[in-house]
Write the structure tokens for this entry.
Amino acid sequence: MKSFYIDYPQEKIGHNQHLYRCAKCKIPTTVIFGLLENHAKSCEYRLKQHKWVQLEAKLKPHKERFDESFTDEVD
Ligand SMILES: [Zn+2]
């Protein structure tokens, strides 16, 4: 699972050349710090990524269960 999310759409804050924020929830990148939970709860990007995280979590146990049953047969 990814621990840092830095591929969200960004835009400049005002005229500052070095400050950026999430284009979806307008929270500065210095606050988000690459963490999904630091985006606004209604952030389009966060919701989209969260779906993938849930999907990964759903797929993983199935694979582990398969591996376990395989090991039992060998024993
Ligand atoms: Zn965001």
Summary: Residues 8, 22, 24-25, 27, 39-40, 43, 45-46 surround zinc ion (CB under 6 Å). The chain is about 45% helix and 10% strand. Helices lie at 29-32, 44-74. The mean pLDDT is 84.
